[in-house]
Amino acid sequence: MKRYAPATLRNREPIADVLSKELPKKGLLLEIAAGTGEHAAFLAERFPDLDWLPTDQDAEAIASIAAWRVEGSSPNMLAPLVLSAASPDWPVKVPDAILRANKQPDVISDVNSDGNWKCDACLCINMVHISKWDATIGLFRGCSQVLTTDAPLILYGPYLEEGIETAPSNLDFDRSLKMRNPVWGLRKLEDVDRLAEEWGFQRTARYQMPANNIMLVYRRKPT
Length: 223
Description:
Layout lengths: L5 H17 L4 E6 L5 H9 L3 E7 L2 H13 L9 E2 L13 H5 L20 E5 L7 H14 L5 E6 L1 E2 L7 H13 L6 E2 H10 L2 E9 L3 E8 L3
Parallel strand pairs: 1-2, 1-4, 2-3, 4-5, 6-7
Antiparallel strand pairs: 5-9, 8-9
């Protein structure tokens, strides 16, 4: 069953505008924590030369992503992959035939490796603040394995930035998140930058976005 996130209609165009500046022209994009699948469906259509692979750890989210894919008309939107960002073992080897062929299962849930899987970009929207810190660690760790050199890892969401006053609405949001789950909450950008460096990434861009969000671009440094 398709799910809906009201914020998607408000932020998908600004997100697409930034992605048009940062994404490669073609290749394989991995979306982590794709949620409802609305962004994947919209962005896959916007970037038809990119194979768009949405993932999520939640069964209801996977079902929603699959439903958006079936209803859509973008052959480059691939079947969703069951993946937890926090997992130390991402399915980093995937048969090329599964990813590239149009005749795919509705959901990729079990992958037997017969070739190396390398991605040309990774996108993660609104996960870092609504998950445990281990998920962000896993995000950079996993991307260090699957992204090619200089490939972008792009994050969207609210953050706490040193030297920049946090909007009252973001402070309220941070408190509400921690009331729901004490391990959630807005992250300090300096902590995310430090983590990125530990896993071989360097922040190359920051974009101010609507509703006090930002987009961050990290690129994998040569090893």
